[in-house]
Every structure is written in C-alpha cells, then in structure tokens.
Amino acid sequence: MNAPLPEHLAPGLYIVATPIGNLSDLSPRAASILSRADLIAVEDSRVTAKLLNHIGVKRPMTAYHDHNADRIRPGLIARMGGEAIALVSDAGTPLISDPGFKLVRDARAAGHAVVTIPGPCAAIAALTLAGLPTDRFFFLGFLPPKEKARADAIAEVAAVRATLILYESGPRLAATLTALAEGLGDREAAVAREISKTYEECVTDTLTALAARYGDAPPRGEIVVIVAPPGEAAAPAGADVDATLMEAMTRLPTAKAAGEVAKATGLPRRDLYARAMALRDGT
Ligand code: SAM
Q1: Is 119 near ligand 1, meaning CB less than 6 Å away?
Q2: pLDDT (tens digit, 9 = 90+) per residue, 100-149?
Q3: Which of 11, 20, 141, 229 could cysteine-pair with 97, CB 3.0–4.6 Å?
Q4: 194: Cβ below 6 Å to ligand 1?
Q5: Best mutation site among 15, 16, 18, 20 for ligand 1 pocket (most ligand atoms within 8 Å of CB)
C-alpha cells in the first residue's frame, strides 16, 4: 500500500503530465501534486484552470511559455529553493514539443529536486495505435513549415532504421504526407487523430494513399503521423522496381540509375543502389 501523501510538497520542480483530450486521464498522483503545489507554471492559464476546475482545485498559476520563458525562469528557479513549483503544458507531457527543458536544466544546475509525474503523451499514444514497429522509434516533433526546410529535415532521417513519429496540423497534413512519400519512399504510415477524444481515429495506409485521402478533405483536430521504418514499404512492387532499375542501367552508370529511380519512385536511393548492384552482379 502507498504511504499517505504529506500535506506539503517538498520544495523543487514537479513536471506534471496532463491529459491530451480526456480529462479522466489525469492520474491521481498528478492531481495530488497539482492540488498541493505552491505555484503552477502553465502555458495558458485558461486551459489549466479548466483542468484544475475538473479536480475541484484552485492554485496560483504563472505563465511560462515560449515568449516569456527566458524572463520568468530565474524567478522560478529561485522560488524552487523553498517552494514546490509544478510545470504543466496545455496537454500531455511538458518538454515534449512544449516548453520546459531549460527550466529542468537550470533547476538541476541549482541543485533543486526535479520530480516527474509521467502520463499522457500524444507521440506515444499514437505509436500504440498505429500497428507499426515499436522497438525503435524516432520523434521528429513538428517539421518545419517551409517546403525546402521540410524536405531537408525529411532527407536527414531517410536512412534512420526506426519508426518515425511527427506532430502535424490538419491544414498541413496532406502536404507533409506528400513530402514524406517523396523523401522516404511510399512507406506504410498511420494518421492518429483526436486521441482520447470523442472522434478519435487512426487511419493506416501508404503515405501516398493517405496524402490523397487528406488532400481531398483536410481533417480537423490534433494529429500525429507515424511512418514505418525503411524496408516496410508496400509500393511500388519489387518486380516493377527491378525492371525500372534494369532499364535505367542500360543508359546510366549504376549510381546514377539508382538516383534516377529514387527520384521517380520516392524509394530510398541507398536501397535502390544496393538492389541495382545485386541486379548487375546477378545475385
Ligand atoms: N506535450 C504534448 C504531448 O506530450 O503530446 C505535445 C504538445 S504539441 C505543442 C501539440 C501537438 O501534439 C498537436 O499539434 C498534435 O500534433 C499532438 N497532439 C496533442 N494532443 C493530441 C491528441 N489528442 N490527438 C492527436 N494528437 C495530439
């Protein structure tokens, strides 16, 4: 049995994960910490007020977000010496595509206790829904919105042998899925939307099929994209790729042929080069 909680929390920083939709997902321990913190650092006090209201609690709050964090942080660090400061974000786990890492870094540097209260995180929740490999995954957060920067960011991870996890918004979803297909090849993927809310759904298909689906009708709500690791691609079929490679090799050196087919199919150049070498050597 757990020991009863003391009324006052020990001084320090408490990183508290909050629900990503369904308020019932707030853990009893998170509720207990929030109800006893001396101060809660929040992204948006209106959002956190709703959560506190849900558990029947009123606590002092202070804004801690991208625009004021550098100014507010030293004061929070000073207060942690004698008070329990909780950090929450609008939803999910603080620090994950949300403010907080510098607060933790500085709290540690100042010798304060740092405690985490784990809980919901959209990236992990989506990974559990997708039905794609979970043994190795790579979290990309939000990709840059501009086309060139986005393509560069995708190219950087094309060879990573892990399931990829990205956050995205509805209006940008189709363009991102298209860019992912171009940069990674037409891999299997999942779009997880509105997790833990009324209209939760998880749609799985190839990247190009998903891009077509959401290009016609940009979805509402909050979205996580999960992409299979290289080697899990479903299209194009192997025989077609071989034929295309063989034809290209009649005109071009092997590396250039692989490059041309990579551009045409969206498949990773490295894999195509290996396949081209095998075809050339008859292995
Ligand atoms: N710290 C949060 C976490 O632990 O998941 C993420 C914060 S980030 C600013 C917000 C993004 O997370 C959204 O744009 C969306 O991509 C994703 N997200 C948050 N809640 C979600 C939900 N209920 N369903 C799907 N994606 C969600």
Answers
A1: no
A2: 999 999 999 999 999 999 999 999 999 999 999 999 999 999 999 999 99
A3: 141
A4: yes
A5: 20
**Ordered mean pLDDT values, 10 residues apiece, the chain (283 residues):** 68 98 98 98 98 97 96 98 98 98 98 98 98 98 97 98 98 97 98 98 98 94 98 56 76 72 67 78 72
CB within 8 Å of 95: residues ≥ 6 apart: 15, 89, 101, 104
Q: Write out the two tokens for 61.
A: 């709050």
Which is the closest atom of ligand 1 to the Cα of 91?
A: 2
Indicate the domain borders of the chain: 12-120, 123-227, 238-281
Q: Is 15 in the pocket of ligand 1 (CB under 6 A)?
A: no
For 218-269, the DSSP string reads PPPSEEEEEEPPTT----S-HHHHHHHHHHHHHHS-HHHHHHHHHHHH---H
Q: What is the CATH number of domain 12-120?
A: 3.40.1010.10
Query: What would the two tokens of residue 32 be?
Result: 């207990």
Question: What predicted TM-score, i.e. pTM, was given to this entire model?
Answer: 0.82
- Please return the burial class of 115, using the count of CB atoms within 10 Å of its CB with bins 0-12, 13-18 and 19+: middle
Q: What residues contact 253, with CB distance under 8 A and at least 6 apart? A: none
DSSP assignment string, 128-164: HHH-S--SSEEEEEEPPSSHHHHHHHHHHHTT--SEE
Fold classification of 123-227 (topology level)? 3.30.950
Q: How far is the CA of 117 from the CAs of 13, 93, 114, in angstroms?
A: 11, 9, 10
